[in-house]
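Q: What residues go here?
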C-alpha cells in the first residue's frame, strides 16, 4: 500500500457558523451522498443524520445523483478535505489508498491544488 501524502498537517479550516463538524459534514454532503452512507461514516443512524439535516433546513429525503461517486469524486474530496481523516475519506469515496494516492498525485494533480497539505482532521 502506498503512503498517502499529508504535508505539514495543519489544523482544519473552521466554519464557526456550524455548531460542530458533524453538522458541516452533513450540510456539505446531503445531496451528494446517500444518508445511509453518511450515517455509516459517522457511526450514526439514518434517523439521527436526517434529524440533523432537517434541523438545518435541508430536505428530509435528498435527491442524490446516482453517478455522483463515479463522476463527482473530485468534488467530494474538495468538500471533505478539511472534515475527514483519510480513513473516512476512503470509505466515503469507496477507494483504496493506492487509488487515491495515484489520483491525488498523478491524475488531476489534486494534491497540488489542495495546497500540498492534508489537514489533521479529528
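A:
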Amino acid at each position: 500500500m502506498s503512503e498517502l501524502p499529508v504535508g505539514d498537517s495543519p489544523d482544519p479550516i473552521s466554519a464557526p457558523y456550524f455548531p460542530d463538524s458533524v453538522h458541516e459534514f452533513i450540510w456539505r454532503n446531503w445531496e451528494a451522498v446517500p444518508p445511509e452512507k453518511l450515517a455509516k461514516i459517522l457511526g450514526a443512524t439514518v434517523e439521527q443524520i436526517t434529524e440533523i439535516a432537517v434541523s438545518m433546513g435541508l430536505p428530509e429525503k435528498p435527491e442524490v445523483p446516482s453517478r455522483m461517486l463515479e463522476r463527482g469524486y473530485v468534488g467530494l474530496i474538495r468538500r471533505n478535505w478539511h472534515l475527514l481523516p483519510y480513513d473516512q475519506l476512503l470509505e466515503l469515496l469507496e477507494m483504496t489508498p493506492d487509488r487515491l494516492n495515484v489520483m491525488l498525485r498523478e491524475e488531476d494533480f489534486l494534491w497540488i491544488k489542495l495546497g500540498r497539505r492534508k489537514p489533521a482532521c479529528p
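A: Context that may help when evaluating the design: The mean pLDDT is 93. The two ends are 23 Å apart (CA to CA).
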